[in-house]
Amino acid sequence: QWLKVQRSWMYLQPIFDSPDIMKQLPTEGKKFQSVDKKWRAGMAKCNKEGHALTRLSEEGLLKLWQIANDDLDMVQKGLDDYLETKRGAF
Questions:
Q1: How many CB atoms lie within 10 A of CB 75?
Q2: What is the per-residue pLDDT across 22-34, written as a single tens digit (0 to 9) for each?
Q3: What digits encode the pLDDT tens for the residues 36-68?
Q4: Angle CA(59)–CA(33)–CA(38) in degrees, nearest 5?
Q5: DSSP state of 90
Q6: Which site in 9, 40, 77, 79 is 20 to 30 Å from 49, CA atoms measured?
Q7: Rounded to an integer, what distance in angstroms lies between the CA atom of residue 38 and that of residue 34?
Q8: CB atoms within 10 A of CB 51
Q9: What are the DSSP calls for 35-59, one per residue?
Q10: Which residue, 29, 19, 25, is CA-closest to 85?
Q11: What pTM did the predictor assign?
């Protein structure tokens, strides 16, 4: 789950850094920002502790990443739909 979040986040992060996309997709933007906060907080903890292995046994971590994956899937679908309408208009 952790790697799936990382893969999706790495793809979507530069896209949702754009103010234009945030304006065009406000719901997806808010969802992404929520996951972004969780991701950055998790990575900050890993950095503080020195490595990710100490976090693997943390209570609730699996559920956190499962929810983050569901949210990122929804964000990706919204982005895909938006891009499809743009392609159709082109």
A1: 25
A2: 999 999 999 999 9
A3: 999 999 999 888 887 777 777 788 999 999 999
A4: 15
A5: -
A6: 9
A7: 7
A8: 9
A9: HHHHHHHHHHHHHHHSSGGGGTT-T
A10: 25
A11: 0.88
* Residue type at position 42: G
How would you classify residue 39: left for phi > 0, otherwise alpha for psi between -120 and 50, otherwise beta? alpha
DSSP 75: H
Q: What secondary structure, in 3-state letters, does 12-37 show?
A: HHHHHCCHHHHHHCHHHHHHHHHHHH
What is the three-class DSSP state of 60?
A: coil
Q: Is 1 helix (H, G, I), strand (E, B) or coil?
A: coil
Separation between Cα atoms, residue 6 and residue 13, nearest integer Å: 10
Q: Are 84 and 24 in contact (CB under 8 A)?
A: no
- 6 is written with which tokens? 């990382």
pLDDT of 84 > 80? The answer is: yes
Place of tokens 């972004």: 36
